[in-house]
User: Fold these one by one.
Assistant:
Number 1:
Amino acid sequence: MTLDRELLEILACPKCKGEIHLNTAEDGLICDTCRLLYEIRDDIPIMLIDEATEIKD
Amino acid sequence: MTEKSGWQLCGDGPEAYETYIVPAFSGAWAADLVNRADLRNGDRILDVGCGTGIVSRYALKEMGGSGRITGMDVNETVLEKAREICPPNGSAIEWRHGDVSDMPFPDDNFDVVFCQQGLQYFSDRPRALNEINRVLVDQGRFVFSVWRPLAYFPFYRVLHHALEQYVNMEAAAQLASAFTLGDSTQLRDLLENASFKEIDIRLTIKQMRYSPFEDFLVGGFLASPFAHDILALGASKREEMFRVIKKSISNYIDDHGLAAPMEALVVSAST
């Protein structure tokens, strides 16, 4: 896992441009506002709205 | 997928791009683009439509490790190649899979945005330019290049004609899509409408150079989005097409291989 905290600060949710954070498994980035999970594949975050997964409660 | 409609590379395309297109011309144009930006220590840089990462790599060389470089592309296969050449671990370049229409960055996040030969492919150019403006700081610089119209490219004009004749109209149209934003009035309007200032458009002429020509022709096709169509032609038709192309471009082949001019508008603008 090479995404450090500082690098997270320069990423935003592509939909709402708000803050995102690492999930507990550290294999994805979560936007709490949009309830979307952006997968990280081979150290590259897939920051595409179309490919994000909806988070269900 | 809204970012690019034309030259999407897949399969071995990114490898062929690095082997043939980068040494023939893309590397030289990237170096020129980075020079135009007059980078300063600590600049935060975004390379939009980074492809296999040639502009990001030149920027890294220029910055000597100071600053921060992010390469973003909508195409996963080119990013895999970029990552292979410059792994995120230990390199100052971060690779991001993203779409220029909805960029995954906060406002005011970069000092410089580069885009080499990308803007013409963006399906919604005004939206892309607004996004680029949004992620740039105040007084940030947007430095990019777009090819002039196809008429200024002897080599690609010949190729375009051959694709129409031997392959199909879709492949010819895909090639032509690279040359659709070479009008400086149109460019200036687009930039002004996205609130860019200090717009400076420079007509730049360079040469594509590769030896031997035959290798470049085959490699260039492999790096193209219509590689499959060329392979599907069958050997004899393909060889006939290659012969016709070589004959038609012979005025631009010397003892050192292909030497054909190419023209681009290299543009800088500030926020």
Number 2:
Amino acid sequence: MNRLLDPLRAIAGLFFDDRSLAITVLAILATTAILLGHSWFDGPEAMAFLVGGIIAALLENVLRTAHLVSFETHRAPEETATARPGGLLKAPNQGVEP
Amino acid sequence: MMIDPIHALHAGTPMATAFFASAVEAVEAATVVLAVGAVRGWRSSLAGTVAALAALVVIVAVFGRAIAAIPIATLQVVVGALLLLFGIRWLRKAMLRSAGVIDLRDEDALYARQRQAMSASGDAGRNRWDAIAALTAFKAVLLEGVEVIVIVIGIGAAGNMLVPATIGALGACVAVAVAAALLNRPLSRVPENSLKFAVGVMVSAFGLFWFGEGIGLHWPSGDAAILALMAVLFAAASLGIGAARRAASA
């Protein structure tokens, strides 16, 4: 079963690397489409919401990740050792992401 | 013969985006194929590569026909959303790497790790058929190839620019394959993160543009808005790298 699911996971991973960012992006796209479709937005407002929302989501995610790494790096080694298995991130310079 | 500058810009942007994005993917696939070939023999490694390329041709043939039947607005919405997810993912990773939050990708280290993994999984003899080697090369080329297809279809299909996008992608794949064959080692001097950053910006801009078009937005200046979107994304991402660097070192 895993052999069947692995390629699907790999393909899904092309789009959903960070789940929270992917969900936020999809939410912004859906909101823009709905608000424009119901004429609650005109063109320029929708463009500003779409572009601004995506940039804000990206920057928030990158800064949050940087803060998390900084937080994990500055924790005591024993605390980090217990926190890391269930944690979000590895410490910086601990390996190469593909 | 005169080249219309507007037409050149119109075709050049998707071609350049497809070229750079495909170059990144081709370098990643080449690292695995080279490592497998060097350790387990070239016959199985190249057989896996050729099989993956054949599978990719089938995927293109099937999806190419399916895409032609989809209404353009639906295609723009779906492709735009997928391109945006794809591009933002690359941009995020490139920003984190540039800010020093995560390590840069190191083709030499990955090549060494792949060689070690291949050496550890037994020896089939360099001239004999080696299923593990063939499957490893097949999987790497197929997965990276699927990414290239997503990029080419995403950038080309929604704007009727499949030909320039395909030329860009094929050009990159051939260039990387020739360079890898001549050098016979991973292409570690390719500035992978800078390319990924640039491609993340370009692909995200295409994604925003197509999604907007699909839901009925009329971007000012038509296709030229893609360049403006690239500039805005580039500026925001560059500022974000500085902020992330400060946050990581705080």
